[in-house]
Design brief:
Structural class of chain A: alpha/beta
Strand content of chain A: 15-25%
Oligomer: homodimer
Number of domains of chain A: 1
Helix content of chain A: 40-55%
Distance between the termini of chain A: 33 Å
Largest sheet of chain A: 5 strands, parallel
Number of strands of chain A: 9
Order of helices and strands of chain A: EHEEEHEEHEHEHHEH
CATH superfamily of chain A: P-loop containing nucleotide triphosphate hydrolases
Strand order of the largest sheet of chain A: 2-7-1-8-9
Number of helices of chain A: 7
Low-confidence stretches of chain A: 186-191
CATH architecture of chain A: 3-Layer(aba) Sandwich
Amino acid sequence: MTRGRLVVISGPGGVGKDTVIEALRRQRPRLAYSVSHTTRPARDYERDGEHYYFVSADQFGELLQAGEMIEHARVNGYLYGTSRGPVMEALGEGRDVILKIDVQGAEQVRRSHPDALFIFISPPDMEELLRRRRGRGSESEAQIEARQRLADEEMRWAASYDHVIVNDRVERAAENILELLEGRGAERDAS
Amino acid sequence: MTRGRLVVISGPGGVGKDTVIEALRRQRPRLAYSVSHTTRPARDYERDGEHYYFVSADQFGELLQAGEMIEHARVNGYLYGTSRGPVMEALGEGRDVILKIDVQGAEQVRRSHPDALFIFISPPDMEELLRRRRGRGSESEAQIEARQRLADEEMRWAASYDHVIVNDRVERAAENILELLEGRGAERDAS
């Protein structure tokens, strides 16, 4: 059996990574999704073990020490990381595994798994991103502005990814990613 | 007052970083030394707060979460990190600060402090390194061999440092580093 491939998906907060990944998994149920660990508190709609594994900083330290993290990063004052076990298991079953991680984490994966597929999801434009985030209504204006600065910074990393996918329509972004995974989408990057 | 400069010192385990740093501090007492945090157990001769701050993985996680670590890395199954506070204080006092850190940590400092001075200490030859480590007598043969593999790997990073100093004689290696710090040693690198 062919071993699965790691698919790294990054992009500024609010760009719609979660909805694109949902669409991807709907379109191709065999895709595995790596649930990250985080020390940040859960938002109202988030469920432990589904959106994230919500852990304490202590627990995070233990996982790091045990070598359980493929990558980890501190973003906005909280720790995020990908645990090794479930990812390796899915790869061993020949399933491709999606990692939704930030640009620092992606850099670590680039070193440990240079054969991974690195995809950056970009908003149609940054103003649109700001509107979406305000529309979400779960953040204060100060939080929104801090995240926007972070997003501007993250956008500068797009060039280091294998492919940049513009999330203008979710289903189409997901299709583009599936084509890349199947190795028949390279010439459509710029679309 | 001119702000101090970060001086990153890396090199394979057993190359004599500690003795070179001792000589440096003896020759120039105003140099500050950043004591790292680690989760590894103390060796017999090591004192807490002097060689390292010995902490638990839990405590390490809390420090990371608090953004207290300038750099951190996992080496041989243990975590190591440099805490921000004391370093920033010494730099603010116009003192140069020595960080003894591994190649992964150095890479993080390169991103956050590109103006730091990056020095790699190399053994006269790798066989010599093995002899020194066996002579130390504090490690099993299996540990020695594992560390040797790590050292071989670390040596490949030497080229990414500003300067490589060969530690043939400790006092001379320290003098070379002081010359680099004073900006009059660049042409003596290859000596």
